[in-house]
Records
---
Amino acid sequence: MNGNFTFHNPTRLHFGEDAMGHLTGELKNYGTTVMLSYGGGSIKRNGIYEAVTAALKEAGKTVVEDGGVMPNPTYEKVMHGCQLVRDNKVDLILAVGGGSTIDYAKAVSASAYCTEDAWQKYWVRQEKPECPTVAVGAVLTMVGTGSEMNGGSVITNRKEGFKRGKVFGTALFPKFAILNPRFTMTVPQYQMVAGFFDIMSHLMEQYFAGTADCTTDYINEGLMRSLIHASRIAAKDPQNYEARANIMWTATWALNTLLKCGKGGDWEVHQIGHAIGLVTDATHGMTLASVSLPYYRHVMHDGLHQFVRFAVNVWGVRPEGKSDEQVAMEGLACLESWMKEIGVVLHSKELGVTEENLEQVADAVLILPVGYRTLTRDEVVQILRESM
Ligand code: NZQ
Ligand code: ZN
């Protein structure tokens, strides 16, 4: 292990079919007014809304309704939520949904009492909140982002022309998170497999960096193998509880700060994905899937040792009698077959990237000086073109 780090994760996480039984007890730790934030209505169709409102009633809360959080939540919606928080003196934001709703709740929490331009302060200058924040709790209904146990908050600002992530500190991690794998069973197949790829991408973004022998990489490989195994089952049989539960747990560990301990990280696939999301409003996991293969083939030679390790330890490629390059290429071919097997989008043109908007996408890509290679803008364009 190289470097110095502090590991601290304050989210209390309740997992399993009975997890919802903890909600009333958790709610009792906060003041009387709860803002109930949720998405476009799936929770009203699958019974989760009733279960949550029953717990809120049992805990004696006054509820401020805040529905309509869209996938890829916008800054405009965040500002609306901030107004609700201030007008009603909200004590807790209870986010019921996927990454979009939970990310949104963190954004509102940090922005409601911010006296500056919150977009500039958090998502552009990447500063810490200096104002009071509001506690956030989460009931997770869609698996992938890890937002249930981290400080991530990815917001789209169409006026400014960016989709940007801010990683808030532990004060903005959800105070508690309820994870019942059964709640995810109504997620449509397309969203479900997009979530599976999002998890794989979080694992790869943190794996493809550094040269040291690092315990974190061994943990990461175990999570990748569990995900690959369970996702093959779940893609064919989405109601398989064991597989869905394993994937839910893997998603949380894939992005709850454990896997960055002793590692640098890459995150360029996510930056390209965010730019595609900004321009096309496509599903997050699919944006990542559409660019990952061209990206990794492009940077493979800069981190060849790690791509060899990925091929051997994650995909079981036999290295005997082959060059490092052949082994690494075989690993990426295994990744591609798995992506085809679970059914993710392999071409960005299927998401709406065209020759006409390609430059606009490239302009919105944040180029990070991390990973094995810092891209130039021309390389971004090349990768985008190859992804189509
Ligand atoms: O809005 P509703 O009606 O609830 O429908 C949602 C939405 O349309 C639906 N859904 C969720 N749970 C469901 C369900 N449908 C039926 N049954 C259920 N149980 O699924 C759709 C997608 O939901 P969303 O929350 O947008 O998906 P996801 O969890 O993938 O979140 C994506 C957002 O998270 C950000 C992404 O950029 C994107 O904006 N990310 C957040 C991260 C973080 N906090 O650390 C990291 C990630 O890399 C990612 O960038
Ligand atoms: Zn992601």
Note: The radius of gyration is 20 Å.
---
Amino acid sequence: MSPKASMQVLSVASEAYPLVKTGGLADVVGALPHALAPEGVAVRTLVPGYPGVLALLGDATAVHAYDDLMGGPARVLAGTHAGIDVLAIEAPHLYRRTGTPYADAQGRDWADNGLRFAALARAAADVGRGAVAGYRPDLVHAHDWQAGLVPAYLRYGAGPRPVTVMTVHNLAFQGQFPASLLPRIGLPAESFSVDGVEYYGAIGFLKAGLAMADHITTVSPTYAAEIRSSESGMGLDGLLRQRASAVTGILNGIDIDVWDPARDDRIAARFDVRRVKARAVNKAALQAKLGLDVDPDALIFGVVTRLTWQKGMDLLIEVLPRLVQCGAQLALLGSGEDAIAQGFAAAARRHAGRIAGLIGYNEDLAHGIQAGADALLVPSRFEPCGLTQLCALRYGAVPVVARTGGLADTVVDANEMALAAKAGTGVMFSPVTADALTTAIERTVALWADKPTWRGLQRRGMATDVSWTRPAARYAALYRTLVEHHAQ
Ligand code: ADP
């Protein structure tokens, strides 16, 4: 195959931006088709037909039908949205519900999630084997546990199969279901083994994908190494060590058209690396919007996150008094656990004008924080890649991050030697404790006080390539190697 010959890839996931999004997974799955097109890779994206997805697809055409897909009739619909070639599984018994892709309005996981995502994988395997007339992908790329059974259905089915790649976006979510589900999801009894889908007496969707995919990728080189250790492997490290030669870390990029401070109509004033000073308008707008004191001299730490233990938000709450004492402000945007939201709400009451934010999901404010905050805090306990620090680099908000996973791979710590060499794009700290976070906040305040140094951090950050160009080339090269090897 010549280097840029066209290749067909079926990408399979539970979310894809802008069709449906709850987190970074959607950003990545939504960006890959655009990023890979210039590499000669044509991507079709298979997602569950949640009501919102079907509404966006409009008059999609049915390209495959099931009398019974995990308990009811279903169709695979083909359509396009926002330049993405979409296949959606229309299966009302599985997906026609209000709530998130995974849970009801009260946040309780759907009881039949095992069936719902087995259906996604089943359909992917069928499409992978040519169920849609005129379409036979060279490779099926499965994302996270929701697509973890794709390699299993392909392995235990008959006939030639495409290459499989399993990408781990977050090892913390593994998709474990009772063994009794096995006959209902149409996998043979023999699949219930250590090198099959069995995982500590249950069915492990992600485990199955990791055990049976031809290749495994994860979203940063550091996370690829971390997940092979017992501290970070979340029970799957043994398997990942065994498969070490088939594991690759490829960093995520961000969509630099969606995240472009020079053309962003969600922010008060547009700017670029030559007009960094224009950020001041966005800073004042952010302070006014959130009810922070409008003070150009107060360093604003921004946060855009899910409110969970993973993201270190409990530690941030603990150190807020010190952050305020340093003269800084906090602008928070987050959705997630109630207890954490309440912790921030209490701090905002105690430090009115210094700590403020919005609990919820709000893309406009996410852009407003990246454009107006001086620094962006990401104190994650673990972070497979992290996207918000990439947005921050592009928007001139200096990232202050934990030294873990993709954060360690994307931010260059502005230590003394780095600064002497005119390098450094942010502040990095470890271990992820309240003390180390406090020190990082103090270091950031000291750097902020030195304006030429601070400008240097911002400029270098804004000049960093956070696009999909390099990662897409790496995916394309990996796909080609795997497909060529498979054909031999
Ligand atoms: P994760 O996928 O673990 O939540 P990432 O940093 O990989 O974290 O991706 C988070 C994505 O979701 C980013 O695009 C970020 O801007 C967005 N995001 C996170 N929380 C919010 C929120 N409350 N409102 C709007 N966007 C959010």
Note: The chain has a mean pLDDT of 97.
